[in-house]
Design goal:
It contains 15 helices and five strands. It is of the alpha/beta class. The chain folds into three domains: about 20-155, Rossmann fold (3-Layer(aba) Sandwich), CATH 3.40.50; about 160-220, Helicase, Ruva Protein, domain 3, CATH 1.10.8; about 225-315, Zinc Finger, Delta Prime, domain 3, CATH 1.20.272. Helix 4 runs parallel beside helix 5 (about 115-125) and helix 11 runs antiparallel to helix 12 (about 240-255). The longest helix has 19 residues, at about 275-295. The relative contact order is 0.10.
């Protein structure tokens, strides 16, 4: 069985958790007392919410942590029956060991239906003495207020490049990888602070057996290179529509990129163009419309060519 690096290099202790010192400091105090409240972890994907929940369980229960933890992904099991049966049955049984409560981790809790959240509220209330809940979500606003008021809320920050580099270094040294500086920068650019994506990208690149370079990273990630997209946009702004179209076709057909990925990179590159702010605003508006049309089923090539046509006209001041 191939080991997934995102799991292999997941922190095992509170001291190994990266970039969330403001959260870890509060959590350590609860763990030391062996008495945690219900918790709500909110923040971007790949910033360590589920990892911290599992680390808390390891620190509290030691070798018995798996017997005392129920981990569910609420996006898969999001209905009221899951709360009424699976969660409730686990919540009302006593813990193994010297800690008087079990832990129930609900990942992607913002995917729970409104009815399930109402049932969860009652379960949290009725079994507080013998069970604690840790809810992980990207958007805390989707969690009903009665649940939020029962939880200590922790906000997770997106990881900085420095902390992501620290994580890359840990994997590179652990797996003895050969990686260039521009390869590291490419991973940071694509991952955008998501450590899960960092680990998966490194593993996918390492499987090729080659030195990990910028070219390899973008090839494995199947993502548009910033310089290609920028060149396409600049050609369109200069009025050279044919060259811009050729670059688009190269990305779509030779590189095999998805239209949605090209549009996302266009959105990122607009801010780097040497054009007036007003023009950037118009380009963002046009890009949003293109992304919507592709999502709704429009042909990617036609829609992005239409966007390039709008960019060319804006470049000419029309």
């Amino acid at each position: 069985m191939i080991e997934v690096w995102a799991e292999k290099y997941r922190p095992k202790t509170l001291d190994e958790v990266i970039n969330q010192e403001h959260v870890v400091a509060r959590v350590k105090a609860f763990v030391k007392e062996k008495n945690i409240p219900h918790m709500l972890f909110a923040g971007p994907a790949g910033t360590g919410k589920t990892t911290l929940a599992l680390v808390i369980a390891r620190e509290l229960y030691g070798k018995y942590w798996k017997q005392n933890v129920l981990e569910l992904n609420a996006s898969d099991e999001r209905g009221i029956d899951v709360i009424r049966h699976k969660v409730k049955d686990f919540a009302r049984t006593k813990a193994i060991g010297d800690v008087p409560f079990k832990i129930i981790i609900l990942d992607e809790a913002d995917a729970l239906t409104a009815e399930a959240q109402q049932a969860l509220r009652r379960t949290m209330e009725n079994y507080t003495e013998i069970s604690r809940f840790i809810l992980c979500c990207n958007y805390s606003s989707k969690i009903i207020e009665p649940i939020q008021s029962r939880c200590a809320v922790f906000r997770f920050k997106a990881l900085t490049d420095e902390h992501a580099k620290e994580f890359i270094k840990r994997i590179v040294e652990g797996e003895n990888l050969d990686i260039t500086e521009d390869g590291i920068e490419a991973i940071l650019y694509i991952a955008e602070g998501d450590l899960r994506k960092v680990a998966n990208l490194l593993q996918a690149c390492a499987i090729t057996g080659e030195k990990i370079t910028k070219e390899l990273v973008f090839s494995v990630a199947a993502q548009a290179k910033p310089e290609d997209v920028k060149e396409m946009l600049e050609n369109a702004l200069k009025g050279n529509f044919i060259k811009a179209r050729e670059k688009l076709k190269e990305m779509l057909f030779k590189q095999g990129l998805a239209g949605e990925d090209i549009v996302k990179e266009i959105h990122r590159q607009i801010f780097n163009l040497n054009i007036p702010e007003e023009t950037k605003v118009k380009l963002i508006d046009a890009t949003g419309e293109t992304e919507f049309r592709i999502t709704e089923g429009g042909d990617a090539q036609i829609q992005i060519e239409a966007l390039l046509a709008k960019i060319m006209l804006l470049g000419k001041g029309r």
